[in-house]
Amino acid sequence: AWRNPDSALTASLLGPGRYGDELYTTTALQASYQFSVGDLSPWPTHTSGQTILCNRKPCSEDYRKRAGSWQHQPLNTAKPRYLEQLENYLRKELLLLDLGKDSAQELRLQPYREIFEFFIEDFKTYKPLLSSIKNAYEVMLAQQREKIRTLEPLKAKLVTMNEDCNERILAMRAEERYEISMLKKEKMNLLKLIDKKNEEKTALQSEVAKLRKSLAQEYLHYLTERDARKILIADLNELRYQREDMSLAQSPSVWGEDPMKLTLALKMTRQDLTRTQMELNTMKANFGDVVPRRDFEMQEKTNKDLQEQLDSLRADYEEVCKEHEILLQLHMSTLKERDQFYSELQEIQRTSTPRPDWTKCEDVVSGGPERWSMLAEGKNSDQLVDVLLEEIGEGLLREKDFFPGLGYEESTPSFLRFEGNVTNMKPTKKAVVSLIKDIWKERLSEEQRENFSDFFYNFLERRFGPGDAMAWAYTVFENIKLFRTNDIMSQFYAILMGKNREIVYTRQKEIIAQLLKEMTSIDSQNEGVITMEQLSTVLKSTFPFKKEEKIQELMEAGGWQPDSNNTELLDYRSLFVEDEEGQSTFFVKKLREQYLNEKEEYLHELKQELGLELREDVNLFRLREALLTIDPSLDKQTLNSYLSQAVQIPVTELPEEGEKEKDIVVNVKTALEQLHMADVRRMGLREQDPAS
Predict the structure, then answer these.
(1) Could you list the residue ranges forming a coiled coil in this record (predicted)?
(2) Distances (CA, A) of 93 to 87, 96, 99, 119
(3) Distances in Å between the alpha carbon of 226 and those of 220, 223, 234, 279, 283?
């Protein structure tokens, strides 16, 4: 049955005893593409005793009768042997699988795949159809696996992002808790301050109440005094009237008058007294609460003084409150700065190292203590590290026999484009310096200027031949890259790598030549010496825009001391001498240092005048205005040269002054970098600058 599954299937359909008697070949089954009930046994709805009749068409009447009879068969039929064997095989394979692993579902498909392959291989008739079905499912499964495989990194990235977000949330919550605690503390302090101010307000209110009470008492006292005064005046008038009556009664002339007349006069007098008393009572009733003007004015003045004092105290109180708030803010900022400085101090204490003992290098550097003391003279720790690295690098450079080629990439300089190993020519430092001087000598005398890197390589080809030119190019490049403290090598390296333009080197040479020429012209006797006063005069005439302290720095670099005599002689030729290794004197180094510092200050003023960030853009018109503002003495030719270098456009292609300049835009950072590479210097003082 395993070798011929078609025969086994037919036997299961025909039942026992009928296999081979009425069996047709499978030609009819293979020729038909349509699945029908008469071709395969739809077990278990048919019994094993039924047969497949030969030469029966699916559409015939006999076929319909048999199909109808199959539908009424009982369901007590046994499974075919081939089916049982496949089920047992599948069950055993599934039991052998380890379903606890991650790939359990993938492995679970393998037994089913094998069972399906058995069907495909054993049922030859349906093999193409089943194979296409299997291939379709396999392609779909492969696509799903590939999609799962592509989603795995996204899942890991999602987990990582989730962790980062959780950490940020925790950090933000911690920061919020800290801010809340600080705000609560500030709230408590402000509440205490409010309580204190409320207490002061209550004290002031109580003081005002006391003043009002004392004012009322004084008012009552003065009112009583007024009433007593009026009563006293009335009593005095009464006594005066009585005295007059007594004097009249005692007068001899009174006795001689008519008693009726006297009685009538007394009656009229008493009526006048009654009327006057009524008027007095009316006035007392009407004006009993009236304060005298003098007392009123006095109390009004006192009240006004108290009000002014209260207003002054209230203004002082508000000012104190504002000062208190400012002090609180200052206190908080001071606390933050203190915490920051404290953390920085702890970090510095943790990471700082003790000052190195540079005398240990005396035994390591070739030449011993004498050469090391000469190399270390006047240098700080950073410069001493550079010197030590150069000494170590020089030894390593001499040990190399070959340099690896840098290839032909676009980022590689044209004179270094080579594949493979390049021979190290191992020249001395003096030989490299001498070669660089020869290069500059020929470059300055050249009429037709070519690219500097191309000129450098062409010079090496002319000097050493095409075969050794590349070796010398790599050798010179490695040497100038190593010896950064050497003046001539560092300048040559910066220009060769495009960090500076040649005009910077030629300008510095012109300045030195001009100084030497001025000093030589003053030395009329050609003795080679000048006085310090003459040196100061030459420096001020050569550099009219330098400040006094800059001139003094140059004089000190030349050997002048503040307490020395200006008539002291100076060997001025020694100020411009270079040693065999290309090292300049301290005077020339100070000149170059001031040249670079003045350029930095000039570009810094330009950036401030533009008022833009480095990432912003500026047009040509705005750049021209800024240059003329910081340096009004710029002539048109020099100004156009600066603008051409800033925007990287030839001078002949620059537009005329006007609206067209606004169309040319350049990044501020790029413009400043381009100007820094060029020879940019001040041509005059600004209007607000004091004269030197």
Answers:
(1) 180-214, 296-323
(2) 10, 5, 12, 17
(3) 10, 5, 12, 17, 13
Q: CA 118 to CA 368: how far, in whole Å?
A: 89
Per-residue pLDDT, averaged over 193-219, amounts to: 92
Q: Is 72 exposed, middle or buried (0-12, 13-18, 19+ CB in 10 A)?
A: exposed
Output 256 or 11, whichever has higher pLDDT: 256
Integer CA distances (angstroms), 373 to 354, 368, 454, 589, 622, in order: 21, 9, 40, 19, 53
Instruction: Indicate the pTM of the whole model.
Output: 0.47
Handedness of CA 266, 267, 272, 277 (dihedral sign): positive
**Would you say 630 and 602 are in contact if contact means Cβ atoms under 8 Å apart?**
yes
- 339-343 contact pairs (CB < 8 A, 24+): none
DSSP, res 73: -
DSSP 636-685: HHHHHHHHHHHHT--GGGPPPSSGGGGG-EEEHHHHHHHHHHS-----S-
Q: What sign has the CA pseudo-torsion 381, 382, 386, 392?
A: positive
Closest residue by Cα to residue 492 from 452, 444, 523: 452
Question: What 8-state DSSP symbol labels residue 35?
Answer: -
Q: According to the per-residue pLDDT averaged within each range, which of 324-333, 361-370, 571-580, 645-654 is highest?
A: 324-333
Residue 669 backbone dihedrals phi, psi, to 5 degrees: -65, -45
| Cβ–Cβ under 8 Å, residues 551 and 594 | no
Burial class for 12, CB neighbours closer than 10 Å (0-12, 13-18, 19+): buried
By C-alpha distance, which of 634, 609, 623, 611 is closest to 665? Answer: 623
Cβ 457 vs Cβ 415: under 8 Å: yes
Q: Are 433 and 488 in contact (CB under 8 A)?
A: yes
Query: Strand 421-423 to strand 402-404: parallel, antiparallel, or no bridges (unpaired)?
Result: antiparallel
Structure token digits, residue 62:
């006999």
Length of the chain, in residues: 692
Kindly state the tokens that stand for 242: 């009585």
| Euclidean distance between CA atoms 46 and 48, whole angstroms | 7
Q: Which span out of 99-113, 208-222, 485-499, 641-655 was modeled with the highest average pLDDT?
A: 208-222
